[in-house]
Structures are given as structure tokens and as C-alpha cells.
Specification:
By secondary structure, this protein is an alpha/beta fold. It has 16 helices and 16 strands. The strands form 3 sheets. It has a 10-stranded mixed β-sheet with strand order 7-6-5-4-8-1-9-10-2-11, sandwiched between helices. Strand 15 and strand 16 form a beta hairpin. The longest helix is centred in the middle third of the chain and has 36 residues. It binds calcium ion (CA). The site of calcium ion has 5 residues, from loops.
Length: 505
Amino acid sequence: MKHLLTLGLTLIIALSIHAQRPNIVLIVSDDHSYQTISAYGSKLMQTPNIDRIAKEGIRFDKAYVTNSICGPSRAVILTGKYSHKNGFKDNANSSFDGSQNTFIKELTRTGYQTAWIGKWHLQTNPQGFTYWQVLPGQGSYYNPDFLMMNGERKRVEGYVSDVVEDAAEKWLTERDPNQPFCLVIGHKNTHRTWMPDTKDLRLFNQSKFTLPANFYDSYETREAAAVQDMTIDKTMRMGYDLKMFASKEEEEKDLSIKRMTKAQRQAYMTFYDSIHRDFQSKKLSGKALVEWKYQRYMQDYLATAASLDRNIGRTLDYLDKHDLSKNTIVIYVSDQGFYMGEHGWFDKRFMYEESFRTPMVLRYPGVRKSGSVNSNMVMNLDIGPTLLDAAGIKIPNDMQGKSFLPLIKGSAKKGRDAMYYHYYENGEHSVSPHFLISTGRYKLIRFYTRVSGWELFDLEKDPSEMKNIYGQKGYEKVTADLKKKLAQLIDQYEDEEAKKILVIH
Ligand code: CA
């Protein structure tokens, strides 16, 4: 009897310890813009499931990234460190050193079951997880291959966001229910080339979208914006991006289409063939052609977002159904924002708001006020430290991010007063490397390598960042203060490359 009592007490203690350690589901999408999420006021489409996280939790209106590009962003989230510290600076020449510490390793070490399932895009295999199953490279929209922990490469039939969610649910079902877990679901959607699920092809086919006011930007006063190669007009390709192949032979060569099943391909090509016929009959050119491209881009992009949102709903339903919602933190975040025709662009990279900022919503068990909006400046750098804080684990000293848990719990009112950003890649899309400081109101940018020079924006007066006011009369003090603060941040984050450029110029 005494023995049973001791056993019972031990069990109660063990259970209460576990009850205090929250589970974590971190959903990371790819290139999903806040402009297309209804929780952020978008009228372009409805995203009921992302909205549900916001309604039951917190919407972050000033969530930003430190380097607006796919692989580097994931490396920053994992390590809580800037790209120059974690070594993964760009998609072109970097591969992630998986032997370094990550917030995941800290969780695994302290008894969490940890998994990354879906898009990973860090070149090397994941390390420090109890389970992983990732898409190789960019992954495929249809019938994607997965790299498995045992070294196998496995093709799974279906649409990518569905099969990633299936794998995530399978792992949740098979995990040890007596241990807390941290699951990262990496979605490929809404990455280029925006191939919708066959059932979503017609969702926005009849919609006409209003062009952003600065769609025909002529880039005056902004040299780096003028030399980029990411416009819907000149860069977006008719075949590769918009599925308007010049010939059946060209279509045959498209690897994404090649891997479809017969039924998938038939449904897919029936849809695009009819659009193609209509397009050819119109004989468009000039602005009419650019605007046609914009409409098709939006229609396909939003259709891939619909599948993403639907599968986020499946995750939330799974947690509800298995009584996990009350003890699970859910975060939805994109790896960066994206241009939906602003400045005439698609893609990301620049530190103008559309790609510097990222959507982020969070549901935290026991948060006092659901549906709240947080307007503090937080960064993807902070996600790891925040989750460690929530799990009661000491944040390693060399992590550069800051926990925003006090902001969630209301024990702190104010976050950082300035943000530091550094983009390195000098390749595809011809975006010049640059670093910057943003205080929310002002943004001071230093371009180097491809383009050399400063840009200054007053976001209160110029929220679309159309007018570079660097060197203009009246901004001397603002500029001097920003430069001083920028130098401080570069020092604080130990960014030697930026330091050298500041000294030279
Ligand atoms: Ca991305």
C-alpha cells in the first residue's frame, strides 16, 4: 500500500512537471506575405485558420527578419543568431553547420521530443532533432521526395502541404505522450513557382485584383531598386512562372510537371491550356501584358496560400481533437515577407517593409487576452530564445535574440527600440547587399558591392518608401543619430563585415 502511494505521488509530481512544460508547434511557411492574410486586414483572400491563431492569441504587427531570404532565415530561427554568426549568409554559397547549438538542441537535451518535418532548405541534414523528415532543397509541389533520418529518399504521392501535414500528424500520433514536444512544420507554400493543388486551381480564376499604387514605380532616388532584376514585367517568366509554355516540348521539360501522376497532370494542364488559349487570342503587349501577368501571379499565389491555410487548420484541429491545445504554444511565421506587385516586384531580399516584415501570429496557452495585437518590434532572431524561455530553459549567452515572452505575458511593455538587418546575397535578382537600422519611424540603409550608397526613409511620411531623403536638409540630426545607433548595433552583434564598410566610407 505504502509502495503504491509513493508510486502515485511520483506520478502526480511527474505529471505536474510535464504540465508546466508547454508543447510547441512552430509552423514556418515560405514567402507568405502579410498583405495576403485576412488577420492582417487583407481583402485579397480569407485565411480563416491563420486568423484563428490570431483570434485565440496574439497578432504581431511589427515582426521582422534579419536577412530576408529562405535558407538564412531558417538558420536564424534555429540558432537565435545573425547570419554572420551562424555562417549561413545566403542561398548561393552557404551550407548550414549543423554541429552548432540551436534552440532545438537545448530542448532535446532537456527531454523534449523534437522534430522538423517539411521544407528545410539548409543544404546539410538536420542535427539535434529526435526526428526529421525534410524536403530536399526547395522541394516539389507535387508528389514530393522526402529525405528521411535513416538516409532513405522517399517519394510521397499528393500535394506538398497535405503530405507534410500528414507526416506531421503521424509523428504527433506516434510520439511518447509522456514527454513534451516541439514540432516544426516547414511548408513549401507559397514559394515560386506557385503551383496550386488541382482542387484549388479555379479558386481565384475569376478574381480581378487592384494594382498596388506603386506598381509602376520608376525607382527615382533609389539606385539599388533601379538595378534589381525582380519585376513582374521583365523577370517573371511566362513558362516557368506562369505556366504559359511556348510549346508542348517546353512543357515536357518542366521538371515539376514531369513528376505529376497522369490524373494530376491532366487536371493541371486542362486548366492552364484553356488560360493559354484565351491569352493567345488576346495578343497582349505593353501594360496590358504586364497587368495580365500580375493577375495570373496573384491568382496562383493565393491558391497556394489557400492550401497552406487549410493545412494549418488541420494542425489546429489535430491539437483540439487530441486535447493538446491547452498546453501547446502555436506560432505561425513566414521565413520573410514578399512583394505582391509593390514597386512592380515579386520576390523578397530588400529591407523595404513588404519583405523585411513577416507575418507572425502566436497562440499561447493561458494568455490573458485573446485576439490582442502586439506592436513591439520583434525579430525572427527572438523566436528560439522565446521558446526556451517558455520551456523554462536558460537561454545560452551567445544567442543574440531576446525572449519576447515578457511582452506576451504583459510583464514588459516595451521591446527593442531599433532593429538591425543584413542581406548578403549578390546574385539572383541582382539585389545589392545591404545592412540597415530601423527604428520603426526611420530606416537608414547602407548598400554596398553592387550599389554603393545610403538611403533614408521616414515611414510616417512615406510608408511606401518611394522617396530616399538621405542628405536632404533638415535630416542632419536624424541621420547622425541613426548612424551612431547603427554603429552601436554592429558592435553589439559583432558584424565585422559591416564594420569594415562603415569605416571605409
Ligand atoms: Ca522564403
